[in-house]
Amino acid sequence: MRSRPAPLVLLLLLVPLAASAHPEAGGIGGLLSGFTHPLTGLDHLTAMVAVGLWGATLGAPEMWLLPVIFPMVMALGGAMGVLGVPLPAVETCVALSGVMLGLAVAFAARPPLPVSAAIVGFFAIFHGHAHGTELPHAANPLTYAAGFVLATGLLHLGGIALGLLTRWPWGRVTVRSGGGVIAGIGLGFLLGFR
Amino acid sequence: MLPLVPPLAHLVLQGMDEFIAGALHPLLTSAHVLVLVGLGLLLRPAAPARLVAAVGVFSLGAAAGLAATCRWAIPGVPLPVLSGLALGLGGLVALAMPPPGWVRWTAAALAGLALGWDSTPEVAGMAAAKAALGAWAALTLLVLNVAHYSARLPGARWSQTGVRIIGSWIVAISILMLAFWLRR
């Protein structure tokens, strides 16, 4: 019986065709690395979601303004971190942000717009600074920055989407309970539990 | 299992690989993507005729930049310039402050010139011309598509806010790009 090359062998002969002329592993790797960075820190993740939850709880215009302002202010903090500009008590403020934003959601706090914007902006600086100092030197910095900003923005929008549940009574209870959980997590970080 | 088929690094269509390489260049350069998206979003509120005219100005600027970089051996545009351009465009989008017509046209011309200038082909002769043509086509089509399809978004508040959010992301990424450049 004549033997025929197994299909797998034929497939392997075609493998070189898949050679990439312009491997963008560096760029894509940097994008993925930056995208996953905000997701790997529970303190950051919960605070970003809390910003979205609080924005949805506050309603318009805060709900629309916070997702626009937050990334820009956070990037300023990130730039400070990248450049090595010192900022005191960064980790403490990051943990504190979880506590305060979580409590704001839990108690459905509705301060005036300038106050809520100032609170969120204040914590955005520290979150950005913490990310900036942690950014690896080996990654593709440009795509890393893009991935990092995208992930943070999507977390924020996810929080807003969850916050829209407040239009229902059960949703209000759920969201406010979630705020309490976030505050508890922030308190844990504040007390040194990691 | 020996690699009997030689690795094909470029498309098999003769003469098309430089064109494709030029066309892909804007998509593979982060700063270019930011400027293109920012400019496209900035141009979208204009009436269709003015939008096409603004894109035409951009295209002419890109052609001029590409022609200059093909004719003379000039270095590319520094990253801070591209980042600053993206930051300005993204900022205008984020703040939802539609600028007057002459500002849009100026921004389009500058963006086209900068991106064309920064798309220096790494080959010479006819290959460089093909790569430049590919880059010019891609730059023009990209900004036109972004402007056209973003202009067709619904006028609902969530949609307009979404555009502003993208503008803020462009600003944020540009700020971080500048910081990385300063750190090196």
Describe this structure in words.
The complex is a heterodimer of chains A (194) and B (184). Chain A has 8 helices and no strands. Chain A is an all-alpha fold. The longest helix of chain A is centred in the C-terminal third of the chain and has 23 residues. Chain A is globular. The N terminus of chain A is likely disordered. Chain B contains 7 helices and no strands. The N terminus of chain B is likely disordered. In chain B, helix 2 packs parallel to helix 4, helix 2 crosses helix 6 and helix 4 runs antiparallel to helix 5. Chain B is globular. By secondary structure, chain B is mostly helical. The chains are: A mainly alpha (194), B mainly alpha (184). At the A-B interface, helix 1, helix 4 and helix 7 of A face helix 7 of B.
Structural class of chain B: mainly alpha
Cα gyration radius of chain A (Å) = 22 Å
DSSP strand count of chain B: 0
Quote the distance from N terminus to C terminus of chain B. 45 Å
Helix content of chain A: over 70%
Main sheet properties of chain B = none
The geometry of chain B reads as globular
Q: What is the structural class of chain A?
A: mainly alpha
Uncertain residue ranges of chain B: 1-13
Portion in beta strands of chain B? under 5%
Number of helices of chain B: 7
Shape of chain A: globular
Put simply, the count of helices of chain A is 8
**Mean of pLDDT of chain A:** 81
Order of helices and strands of chain A: HHHHHHHH
> Would you identify the regions of chain A where 5 or more consecutive residues have pLDDT less than 50?
1-25
Helical fraction of chain B equals: over 70%
Strand fraction of chain A: under 5%
Our Rg estimate of chain B from Cα atoms comes to 18 Å
Largest sheet of chain A: none
- Biggest interchain interface, per-side counts: A-B, 40 and 33 residues
Give a summary of the structure in a few sentences.
Chain A has 194 residues and is mostly helical.
